[in-house]
Design brief:
The chain has 255 residues and is an alpha+beta fold. It has two domains: 3-77 and 214-254; 82-210, no CATH class. The protein is built from three helices and 20 strands. The protein has helices at 3-27, 47-50, 216-254, and strands at residues 37-38, 41-43, 68-70, 74-75, 82-84, 91-93, 98-103, 106-110, 115-117, 123-125, 128-133, 152-154, 159-162, 165-169, 172-175, 181-185, 188-191, 197-199, 204-206, 208-210. Strands 7, 8, 9, 10, 11, 15, 16, 17 and 18 form a nine-stranded antiparallel beta sheet that branches. Helix 1 runs antiparallel to helix 3 (216-254). The radius of gyration is 26 Å and the shape is elongated.
C-alpha cells in the first residue's frame, strides 16, 4: 500500500471514532449521573521498527511514523452539576463514590440517584424498575406492601427511614481504580474482576440529582475540530489518488 494513503486512512478511522464518542456524549447531556467519555490516541510504530529482525523497507519512513491508532477510552469522573428536584427519593452524591445496585445482569455501580418504589415494594432505579438498590449488607431494599414514597426519607448519611423509623442504609462504595469500571448503559458501571470495592461513608444530598458532566459547548468544539481533521485526511487521500492517476496516465505515456 502507498505509505501516504495508509497514514491518511488511519487518520480517517480515528477521526470517525472520535466523532462517534462525542456524539454519544452529546446524546447523554440529560442522562442523570452520566460520565463523558474521553477519546485517546496513540502512535503506531512503523512496520520496519515493529519487526524483529527488521523486515526491510526504507529507514526514511521510520521518521514519518506508522500512523495513528485508537487507544483504550477513558472516562471523566468529575462531579456533575447538582439539580434540586425536591423529590425525597432523589439522592445526589457529593464527592467520590457510587451507589451499589443489582440489575438482572448482575451487580453494578452508578452515580444516578433517581429512585422509586416498584409494585413489590422494592427501592429501584426510576429508569428501570428491575434494577434494585442495595443496602450496606448487599441486600435489596424492600419495604413490603402498604408503604408509599411519601413515607420514605433518606438522610445525608444514607440512612433510609419509613415514617421516621430507620430500616436500611444505602450501600455507598468507592473503587480503588476507576479504570476497572466498564459502562454497560443506563448510567450503570460493571466492575471488572480487578476492581477493589470498599464501603465508604459518602455525603449525600437528598432531594437533589447529579446531572451529566458533559459540557455542550466543549463537546461541540471538539466535534468541529474532529470534523476538520476528518476533512483534511479525506482531502489528502483525494490528492494522493489524483497524483497516482497522473503518474500512471500521463507520466507513463511521456516515458
Amino acid at each position: 500500500m502507498i505509505y501516504g494513503l495508509y497514514l491518511s486512512a488511519t487518520g480517517i478511522v480515528t477521526n470517525l471514532h472520535q466523532q462517534d464518542v462525542i456524539a454519544n456524549n452529546l446524546a447523554n447531556i440529560e442522562t442523570q449521573g452520566f460520565r463523558r467519555q474521553l477519546v485517546s490516541f496513540m502512535e503506531r510504530q512503523p512496520e520496519g521498527m515493529m519487526s524483529h529482525p527488521r523486515a526491510g523497507g526504507d529507514p526514511f519512513f521510520d521518521l514519518i511514523g506508522g500512523g495513528q491508532l485508537i487507544a483504550p477510552s477513558r472516562f471523566d469522573y468529575s462531579q456533575g452539576a447538582l439539580e434540586n428536584t425536591g423529590n425525597p427519593l432523589d439522592v445526589a452524591m457529593s464527592g467520590d463514590g457510587f451507589f451499589e445496585v443489582e440489575s438482572p445482569n448482575g451487580r453494578h455501580l452508578t452515580r444516578s440517584g433517581s429512585f422509586m418504589l416498584n409494585a413489590n415494594g422494592d427501592l429501584v432505579m426510576s429508569n428501570d424498575n428491575a434494577t434494585k438498590i442495595l443496602d450496606a449488607d448487599g441486600r435489596a431494599i424492600n419495604f413490603g406492601q402498604g408503604v408509599s414514597e411519601d413515607d420514605i426519607e433518606i438522610n445525608q448519611m444514607g440512612q433510609v427511614a419509613v415514617r421516621g423509623i430507620p430500616t436500611a442504609k444505602l450501600s455507598t462504595v468507592v473503587v480503588d481504580d476507576k479504570k476497572n469500571l466498564k459502562p454497560t448503559g443506563d448510567s450503570l458501571l460493571k466492575p471488572t474482576d480487578n476492581a477493589a470495592i470498599t464501603q465508604s461513608e459518602v455525603k449525600l444530598m437528598p432531594g437533589f440529582l447529579e446531572r451529566s458532566n458533559v459540557e455542550p459547548a466543549t463537546e461541540l468544539t471538539r466535534m468541529m475540530s474532529a470534523q476538520r481533521q476528518l476533512e483534511a485526511n479525506a482531502n489528502m487521500l483525494k490528492y494522493q489518488d489524483q497524483s497516482l492517476q497522473r503518474l500512471v496516465n500521463e507520466v507513463g505515456k511521456i516515458g
